[in-house]
Write a structure and sequence with these properties.
The complex is a heterodimer. Helix content of chain A is 34%, strand content 26%. Chain A has seven helices and ten strands. The radius of gyration of chain B is 33 Å and the shape is elongated. In chain B, the strands form two sheets. Chain B has a six-stranded mixed beta barrel with strand order 2-3-8-5-7-6, surrounded by four helices. A two-stranded antiparallel ribbon of chain B has the order 11-12. Chain B has two domains: 196 residues, no CATH class; 186 residues, no CATH class. Chain B is of the alpha+beta class. The chains are: A alpha/beta, B alpha+beta. Chains A and B meet through helix 1, helix 2 and helix 3 of A and helix 1, helix 13, helix 14 and helix 16 of B.
Chain lengths: 231, 413
C-alpha cells in the first residue's frame, strides 16, 4: 500500500531580516486510514506543517509527495485542484462563507469540482449534514448556528468531495468541552467508518492520547512519532 | 463559472448600500455622457444641416484648378518663354447643355445652371454692389437656398418672365427700395437695365441677404453681354455625404473645378473635429471618476473578504478563480450602472428635447435644443463604463488573488 503523504526533509523558512524556521527537516509518511495528532507547544510549527501537507504553502526545501506524486513541479492551479479533490480542511474557526446557507456552504466545493449535477450535490450536502446531526439547519445561515454546529458544518464541507485526507487545524480549539467531544467523535468516525485519514493539529494532549498516532514537534522538528499501543 | 457568478452576485447584493452608491456613480456618469453626447452631436448635426442646406452640395464653376498651359510651352520643350499674354478667353463652361445632360444622367440629385456676375444695384442715387445670379427658376427651385425664405413677394414671380429681380431684404433696406419699386442693375461692362423688385428674401445669412440678387438667366446673360453662357452648375444631392465623390467624378470628366460642400467648409469641419475631441475627453473624464467609484468598492470588498478569499483558496479555488470573481464583481457593477445610466441618459435627453425657447434676435423663431438620438452614444458610454469597470475591478482582484491564505488563516487563529 503506497503512502498517502510522504515528506522528506520538509523545511519552511520565513524570509525576513532574521529568517524564521517554521518547519525544520521533517520526514514522515502517512498511510491510509490513519488518525494522527500533531502536537507541540505554541510556535512549534504544527500548523505550518499542516499547511505544507495541505498544499496551502510551499516548502523552502524538501520533497512532498501526495499519493506518490511530487508536488514541487505543480503550478498554482494544479495545487488548487488537488486541494479541491483530495484534501479537506477544518480550521480552528469554522471559516464558513457568511452569505451562504449551511447547505450552500457544503455544496460550494462540489460545485467547484462539478462532478455531480446540482440535484446530486444538494442530496449529498443534505446527507452529509444529516450524518452530522444538522438536518434541520440546512437552510440556515452560519451566524444562526452555535460554534459546535458551525464546526460540524465545516467538517461536512471538508467531506464534500469525498477526499481521502482531512486536515484539521485545532478543530476543537474554540469549542466547549461538550462540543469538542462531539467534533472529536465525528473525526474519529471518519477514520473508523469512512476510511479517511485524519491529521489534526491539537494542543489538547488528552485528545491526542486517544488518537492512533502522535507526532510531537518542538521548534519545527519532529521529536517523537509514536503509535497507539506503544511503538 | 456559474459558481463564480453566484458568489459574485451574493457578494454584491450582500452590500446593498455601497453597491447602490457605486452603481449610481456609474449610472450618473453614463447618463450624463449620453446626454452630453446627444446635445453636442445634435448641435453639430444641426449646424452642418444648416450649412448644407444653405449651399449647393457640389458647385461646379468655370475655374480650373491649374492655370492652362500655353501652346508654346508644349511645342517648344527647352525654350524659355516669357512675356506671353494669353488671349482673352471667353469665360464660361463650354458646351453647358452637354455638361448638364451628362450630369443629369448619373448624379443622384438635382442640378441647376446659372450665370454669376458682379453688378451694381442702383436706386434713388444709392449704389450697392451685388452678386447677380441669373437662374432658370424651375430648376433653381430644387437647389436654391432662398426659395423658402421670402418675406415679401415670392420666387415664383420670377418664373412669370419679364425684367424682374428678387433681392435680399437687407439690400432693399440699404437701397431704400420696396417691393414693386424699379431698380437699375449696372453690369461690369457698363450696360444698365431696369428691373422691378418682385420679391424680398431673408435667409439669415447677412452676406446673402445684403449682396445677392436673382434674375432670369436670359436677363443676366444680356446684361453681362455673354449670350448663352453659364459659369456655374450647382448640385443638390439626395445624400450630402456623397458630395466629395460626385465632385471628384465631375471634375475628372469636365475639367472644371467642382467643389463639394465639405471642401468649401473644411476649416469649419476641422473645428468640429476638435469639438468632438473635447467632448470625448470630457466623457472620458466622467467615466474615469465613475471608474474610481468601482475601484473603491471592489477594493473594499476584497479587503473585507480577505478571510473568505483564504477560505475559498483552501477549499480549492485557484488564483485565477479569485481574480475572475472580483473582476466580475466590478463588471457587474459597471453593467448595472450602464443599464441604469441608459435610462437616466434617455430621460435626460428626452427632457432636453422638450426645452423650448425663443430666439431673441428675431423674436419670431421658437426653437428647441438640437438633439441627436443615436444608439452609438449609448453603446460608447456603456462600453467605456464596462471597460473602466473591468480595469477598476482587475487591480484589486489581482491583489486579492495573490493573497496568501496561510497569512490570513494564521492571522485569524
Amino acid at each position: 500500500m503506497s503512502a498517502l503523504v510522504e515528506a522528506e526533509g520538509l523545511t519552511r523558512i520565513l524570509p525576513a531580516a532574521v529568517p524564521v524556521t517554521l518547519v525544520d527537516d521533517v520526514t514522515l509518511s502517512i498511510a491510509e486510514r490513519e488518525f494522527i495528532a500533531i502536537t507541540g507547544p505554541s510556535g512549534s510549527g504544527k500548523s505550518s506543517l499542516l499547511y505544507l501537507l495541505g498544499l496551502l504553502d510551499r516548502p523552502t526545501s524538501g520533497r512532498l509527495l501526495l499519493a506518490g506524486e511530487d508536488t514541487a513541479p505543480m503550478d498554482e492551479a494544479t495545487r488548487a485542484g488537488r486541494r479541491l479533490a483530495t484534501l479537506g480542511f477544518v480550521f480552528q474557526f469554522h471559516f464558513l462563507l457568511p452569505e451562504f446557507t449551511v447547505g450552500e456552504n457544503v455544496e460550494i466545493p462540489m460545485r467547484k469540482l462539478a462532478r455531480l449535477n446540482r440535484r446530486q450535490m444538494r442530496d449529498r450536502a443534505v446527507e452529509l449534514l444529516e450524518a452530522l446531526g444538522l438536518r434541520d439547519h440546512v437552510d440556515k445561515h452560519p451566524d444562526q448556528l452555535s460554534g459546535g454546529q458551525r464546526q460540524r458544518v465545516a467538517v461536512a464541507r471538508a467531506l464534500a468531495n469525498d477526499p481521502p485526507l482531512v486536515l484539521a487545524d485545532e478543530p476543537t480549539g474554540s469549542l466547549d468541552s461538550q462540543s469538542s467531544e462531539q467534533v472529536f467523535a465525528i473525526l474519529a468516525g471518519l477514520v473508523r467508518e469512512r476510511g479517511k485519514t485524519v491529521v489534526a493539529v491539537t494542543h489538547d494532549l488528552a485528545m491526542a492520547a486517544r488518537m492512533d498516532r502522535r507526532i510531537h514537534l518542538v521548534d519545527g522538528r519532529v521529536v517523537s512519532d509514536e503509535r497507539a499501543g506503544g511503538q | 463559472m456559474r459558481l463564480i457568478v453566484d458568489i459574485a452576485i451574493t457578494h454584491i447584493v450582500g452590500r446593498g448600500r455601497q453597491t447602490l452608491v457605486a452603481v449610481l456613480g456609474v449610472a450618473v456618469g453614463v447618463g450624463f455622457s449620453i446626454a452630453m453626447a446627444a446635445l453636442m452631436q445634435g448641435g453639430q448635426d444641426d449646424f452642418v444641416a444648416r450649412l448644407v442646406d444653405t449651399m449647393p452640395h457640389v458647385q461646379i464653376t468655370d475655374d480650373r484648378r491649374t492655370s492652362s498651359i500655353q501652346p508654346a510651352e508644349t511645342a517648344f520643350d527647352a525654350a524659355a518663354i516669357s512675356g506671353l499674354r494669353p488671349r482673352e478667353d471667353r469665360r464660361g463652361i463650354i458646351n453647358p447643355a452637354a455638361a448638364s445632360a451628362w450630369l443629369e444622367g448619373w448624379v443622384p440629385g438635382r442640378l441647376a445652371v446659372s450665370l454669376n456676375t458682379q453688378v451694381v444695384v442702383r436706386y434713388l442715387g444709392r449704389d450697392v454692389g451685388a452678386s447677380l445670379v441669373g437662374v432658370e427658376p424651375r430648376a433653381e427651385r430644387a437647389v436654391s437656398p432662398i426659395v423658402a425664405d421670402f418675406v415679401a413677394g415670392s420666387f415664383a414671380a420670377l418664373e412669370a418672365g419679364g425684367t424682374n429681380v428678387v433681392i435680399g431684404d437687407s439690400m432693399a433696406e440699404r437701397l431704400g427700395a420696396r417691393l414693386g419699386d424699379t431698380v437699375t442693375l449696372v453690369s461690369s461692362t457698363g450696360r444698365a437695365r431696369d428691373f422691378r423688385v418682385v420679391g424680398l428674401f431673408h435667409t439669415g445669412t447677412t452676406a446673402r441677404d445684403e449682396r445677392e440678387a436673382y434674375v432670369l438667366l436670359k436677363n443676366a446673360q444680356i446684361l453681362a453681354e455673354r449670350t448663352n453662357v453659364i459659369n456655374e452648375i450647382r448640385i443638390k444631392l439626395d445624400d450630402p455625404d456623397t458630395a466629395p465623390d460626385v465632385a471628384r467624378r465631375a471634375e475628372a470628366r469636365l475639367g472644371y473645378k467642382a467643389m463639394s460642400w465639405q471642401e468649401a467648409n473644411e476649416s469649419i469641419l476641422e473645428a468640429l473635429v476638435v469639438r468632438n475631441v473635447i467632448m470625448y475627453t470630457v466623457v472620458s473624464a466622467i467615466m474615469l471618476v465613475a471608474g474610481f467609484g468601482i475601484f473603491n468598492i471592489v477594493s473594499t470588498i476584497t479587503h473585507e473578504k480577505a478571510r473568505d478569499i483564504a477560505i475559498m483558496k483552501s477549499l480549492g479555488f485557484s488564483e485565477g478563480d479569485m481574480q475572475r470573481l472580483f473582476v466580475l464583481e466590478g463588471v457587474a457593477i459597471g453593467a448595472a450602472g450602464s443599464a441604469l445610466g441608459w435610462l437616466l441618459g434617455f430621460a435626460l435627453v428626452y427632457g432636453l428635447s422638450q426645452v423650448r425657447f425663443e430666439l431673441t434676435s428675431t423674436g419670431q423663431e421658437i426653437s428647441g435644443l438640437p438633439i441627436a438620438w443615436s444608439l452609438l452614444h449609448y453603446v460608447l458610454a456603456s462600453g467605456f463604463a464596462l471597460a473602466s469597470a473591468a480595469v477598476a475591478g482587475y487591480l484589486p482582484a489581482r491583489r486579492a488573488a495573490r493573497l496568501n491564505p496561510v497569512d490570513i488563516i494564521r492571522g485569524a487563529s
